[in-house]
Design a protein that fits this description.
Elements (H helix, E strand, L loop, with lengths): L3 H15 L4 E6 L19 E7 L2 E6 L2 E6 L5 E5 L9 E7 L2 E6 L6 E5 L5 H7 L13 H8 L6 H7 L8 H11 L12 H20 L5 H6 L29 E5 L2 E5 L7
Helix pairs in contact: 1-6, 3-6, 5-6
The structure holds a DNA duplex.
DNA sequence: CACGGATCCTGATGGC
DNA sequence: TGCCATCAGGATCCGT
């Protein structure tokens, strides 16, 4: 499931294998979030030239356009020699000369959209408002702090919105704010420069570590309970309501912000 | 225009 | 066991 690190790890898992492949057939299952925006047969004969990532979107470059793939809340991609029939939640399948790309997405919040080019209206509508890449050079502490000044809503909501920086999902929003010692309810515009710098560092550290770990999310780690050899990646606050803060022992608080759960420590995270 | 809330959909889980 | 309510890692759209 799809936080930025998992999207990136998914990309890395098949980009080399699929690049150069020619599309042979495309099959659609039930409707995803948006229509694909072309006749699937138009994809046949096109060549996959690359697979890139922008935020949580995968950009599958074709000889005659590109496919924007989003995994939503519950989507996952597989690439290989698919011999089995389409499953109940397989809603997109692309047979190529090098293997088959499949999207499995029970909740169908994901999408596969064809765009004629990266600057087309279709692509611009989906990618145009995205903030900077958290692991790229453009994401500096100074620019981050400056951007936060213009946002009146809570810092947690600002992180989730992805208009300043992409890739911080609901889990990592709580975790990075804990690492930075910032209360999730603080208005973004009130965050001082040194605190913005702490948050900037926390975002890069957490996302970098997750990518290096193969995209495994904190959620998956905590549900893989029992003897973990991966203690260092256990959530500090996420999904730990009422449990003792790992730093100070105070019970972790749970609130809701914009219909999403937020977890934090009242002692360690200052407004 | 910036913000907060409703919304898309299915499945897992917990209370009664 | 079943039935119902609630919640789930996302992001757009709509009303104020």
């Amino acid at each position: 499931m799809p936080e930025l690190p998992e999207v990136e790890v998914t990309r890395l898992s098949f980009v080399e294998k699929i690049s150069g492949a020619q599309i042979v057939a495309v099959t659609m299952g039930k409707a995803l979030r948006w229509p694909i925006g072309c006749n699937p047969s138009e994809l046949c004969g096109q060549t996959v030239t690359a697979v890139r990532r922008r935020g949580k979107y995968l950009l599958v470059d074709l000889s005659g356009g590109l496919l924007l793939v989003h995994l939503g809340m519950s989507g996952s991609l597989s690439f290989g020699q698919c011999l089995s029939a389409l499953g109940k939640h397989d809603h997109f399948e692309m047979l190529t000369t090098r293997g088959t790309l499949r999207l499995n997405d029970p909740r169908r919040f994901g999408a596969v959209v064809f765009a004629s080019g990266e600057t087309s209206d279709t692509a611009a509508k989906l990618l145009g408002r995205l903030g900077v890449e958290p692991l790229g050079d453009e994401f500096s502490a100074a620019v981050f702090h400056q951007a936060l000044k213009s946002k009146k809503s809570s810092i947690k909501q600002v992180l989730l919105a992805g208009e300043i920086v992409v890739g911080v999902g609901n889990i990592y929003a709580s975790e990075t704010l804990f690492l930075a010692g910032i209360r999730p309810t603080s208005r973004a515009c009130t965050i001082s420069k040194p605190r913005a710098a702490s948050l900037h560092a926390a975002i890069r550290l957490v996302l970098q570590t997750a990518v290096a770990r193969g995209g495994s999310t904190l959620k998956n780690f905590s549900s893989a309970d029992g003897e973990t050899g991966h203690f260092q990646l256990e959530a500090a606050v996420y999904d730990r309501a009422g449990l003792p803060c790992r730093t100070c022992g105070a019970p972790v608080k749970s609130i809701r912000q914009g219909q999403r759960s937020t977890f934090f420590c009242r002692t360690c995270q200052k407004p």
